[in-house]
Amino acid sequence: MPTVLARDEARYDGHPEPGQAPENSCGWSRFLALAACRNARFRFLSSAGAEAATCVVLRVRRGRRMLRHVVAVVPVGRTLDLVGVARLYGGSSAGYVPAETAESLTGCAPGAIAPHTDGPGLELVLDQRLRDREEIVFADVRPDVSIALNTDDYLTLARPRTAAITA
Description:
The chain is of the alpha/beta class. It has helices at 27-37, 82-88, 99-106, 128-131, 151-158; strands at residues 42-45, 52-62, 65-75, 93-96, 122-127, 135-142, 145-150, 161-163.
């Protein structure tokens, strides 16, 4: 017979309490649904550890002209090579976008950006250091949850461009 859990013991079901915004209803839900449908190997972790990856949204320009927006998947704590990202996309400079722009492009708040893109308006690039790992741990899911995703499965699902974009 099933047991009814007390409210504090219940697992998070993705639905917010009345009057509250969802914790992360952006791209992570879609990405995890896709991963599950494609039988990707992933697991949930309570903490990310030192080997985690994060996603940032960048703007690449050539002179004053905006070329494209890029979601960069990089190891936490590494320095992003903005000049290298600009060169990778044929630009002369790259920089971080404001939080409002990142949210409008991805549907996610900065610090919770999923490691994939849905539309043609965003490019996706993965740092080469992450490609060489057996699995990539993403710390951006929720403050208390991380996801370890098999690297080969991630590459198949997200199809990112891969380059050395950190120093």
